[in-house]
Amino acid sequence: MGPEPEPTIQLGHGGGGRLSQQLLHGLLLPGLGVSANGLHDAALLPLGGQPGQPSLAYTTDSYVVRPLCFPGGDIGRLAVIGTVNDLAMAGATPLALSLGLILEEGLPIATLQTVVNSIQEAAAACGVAVVTGDTKVVERGKGDGLYINTSGV
Predict the structure, then answer these.
(1) Residues paired with residue 60 on neighbouring β-strands, in sequence order
(2) CA separation for the pair 42, 85 (Å, rounded)
(3) Distance, C-alpha 123 to centroid of its chain
(4) Contact 148, 76 (CB under 8 A)
């Protein structure tokens, strides 16, 4: 029998290691009724619902980094490049992205402008457009400045 699961979420649950695997295989996949077989960077969904037909690759990822801007890029560039990379790893040609922003009250507008500019530049460089999105604001102290979720097809 394996180790007992942690009674609360720990930072390590999001790190991709042992705790992430325990959370994924012990709670998330069984709770959603999803098999671990064939888990990849992106799901391949057959168009028309029939196996053997052309597929649409679909992926989603969330980005929570500190600092928001760092040498060589920022959270916005990372989000676009990461999502496009997941699609490429599935053998897909990226078509479009969605962009979800969770902004913390007090985030400097200049920081948000820098990140948005990076998102646009990275998307243009990858030949993909941001076609839909959502923005929410959380109270000061209830976030870490800016969280991003991107999905891509």
Answers:
(1) 151
(2) 10
(3) 15
(4) yes
Q: What is the mean pLDDT of residues 102-118?
A: 98
Pairing of β 73-74 and β 69-70: antiparallel
Domain ranges of the chain: 1-39, 41-152
More confident residue, 47 or 109: 109
For the cut 80, the answer to whether the pLDDT of residue 2 exceeds it is no
- Average pLDDT on 19-30 reads 88
Does CATH place domain 41-152 in 3.30.1330.10?
yes
End-to-end C-alpha distance for the chain, whole angstroms? 40
Contact predicate 132/98, CB 8 Å: yes
Beta strands in the chain, from DSSP E residues, in sequence order: 43-46, 55-63, 69-70, 73-74, 96-104, 129-138, 146-152
Helix (H, G, I), strand (E, B) or coil at 45: strand
> Between these two residues, 107 and 1, which has the higher pLDDT value?
107
Yes or no: say if 141 and 110 are a contact pair by the CB < 8 Å rule. no
Strand order in the sheet with 146-152: 43-46, 55-63, 146-152, 96-104, 129-138
Chain center to CA of 48: 26
